[in-house]
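Q&A log
Question type: sequence-to-structure
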Amino acid sequence: MKLSRIIVITFFFILTHGCASPSYNYAPKTVQISEPPVGKISMAYIGDALLTQGTISEHEAIYLNNEVKVGLISTYTFSPGFYIKTGGDHKSGYYLPSKYGDGGSVTKGLVADPFKIIEAEYNPKKLCGVSIYNAKACGKHSFEITTQRASGANNFQQTLIYSGKIANKVNFGYREFSKDVARPAFNNDVEYDLDVSRIIGYKGARLEIIEATNELIKYRVLANFNSGR
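Response status: OK
Response body:
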């Protein structure tokens, strides 16, 4: 049993590309968001966000459009989706299935060691499955380098949500989120009478209401929320 295990590991090293040295030196960027742009005419449906402002983490990632299998005897299969970066350099990076939505997943073959991380070589493009013993099984496969918005310790967002129309009054919900978690004490529901004015305002944000029904709203952003955070 022990000897067969050694043989399998030996074949693994021979048939793949040796050892990897996974790194975890990557830190996502914190970016400011303000959507939609001031002056743009936009449309939203009930339950949609009309207005969003705040900070969010932007994480480098690779995206796979199709299922990918690497290795010969010891194999790993990567499903389509996002894989977020943990570290690397200009030649290659290390990635794990994203936990921020649309993440891929990894399935190991019958004789493969437990999976640890993906190594992506950039030029030429190559993907490798790295085991817990840092042995890797590789194959030449295409992938897209992209970014994915992710929750982070410093995230803060303000959002105005369309809640519908009753008679000629429009209703909105104001929500605040910290680290992607709602802050109930800062949530509020507000109502505006379009017979009084088609310009509405809340916490520094100002919108011009062009058209509103109990299904959708068309509007122009005149100002976003006060950016004091």
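Response note: Helices lie at 2-15.
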